[in-house]
Predict the 3D structure of the following.
Amino acid sequence: MPKILCCHSSALRNTRIEKVNPFGDKQGQAVGEGAVALQAGGNIVIQRNGMTATEVRELCELLLQSNFPRLRAEARAVAEEYVRQFASHLSEHLARKPEVIDFAKLADPDVQACINDAVQASARRGERANPELLCALIAERCRSQTTEFKELVLAEALQVVPKLTGKQIAALSVVYFVQHLTLANIADLAQLEPLGRDALPVSRTAEGVSLIQANHIVYTGACSFTSGFGEDVYRALRSKYASLGHTDNDAFRDELVTKAPSYAAIVDQYVADHLTNVHCSSVGFAIAATNLSAYVECGDLNEVLRGLR
């Protein structure tokens, strides 16, 4: 069975959040063995054996109160509903693979700042802040296996995602898919079809992304945009799968269309939308790979970022 190279994962279980008197010891609060302490307006203790969905919601609501203390009643009701939805997404993501989550990281100021950024964006924009992707990035930030560079990239990605539309995020994902996602050890182009079929919804979301939208992605720092005609995509793909022995770009494309029509449709859309000129930054890589991983297996994000040149 072909293995994906490269070029992404996550959870919370049985935990207790306890509000601690904020008027007590200025240096901190008493924390029992196996617990971590958070600061959010008032103090919070999170027991290390996990968190329930209710407790994730309480944490997010405390962050909401700390950041938006004077919203009008109508606006507060909307913001609170947005944050409840975000908390539900976050608890689901943290519960998927609890074995890879380091719960002690919830006491890390940088992780708390990441969650706070996501809560603020979700409170303001709801689904338009892309909460599912924000939660996936937070879960990735809490993984036990990580690097300092990855942590920096994820922190930046969490600030960029709310500034992008779903179409722009999908466009970044298509760039990542075509330029960097590779199936190892394939014996026939037909083996690309399942991968293309699974990723086709992302391509359809990205379809028609405009030049001004692409330039806005550049503004956020998630990609760069080069002028000119861009790469010869079929030559690049033929080189990527050189072991199959194709010597002609046109023949390669014809065979791809016949044997992997979904994959070929993504490539053709990539060309039609001038995404050959778009190149993901490290932040764009993290956003694209994490978003695309909801559809296809993208490999471990540590490896994705380690492979950047």
Remarks:
- The two ends are 28 Å apart (CA to CA).
- Residues 73-96 form the longest helix (24 residues).
- Strands lie at 3-6, 17-20, 35-40, 42-47, 181-184, 223-225, 278-280.
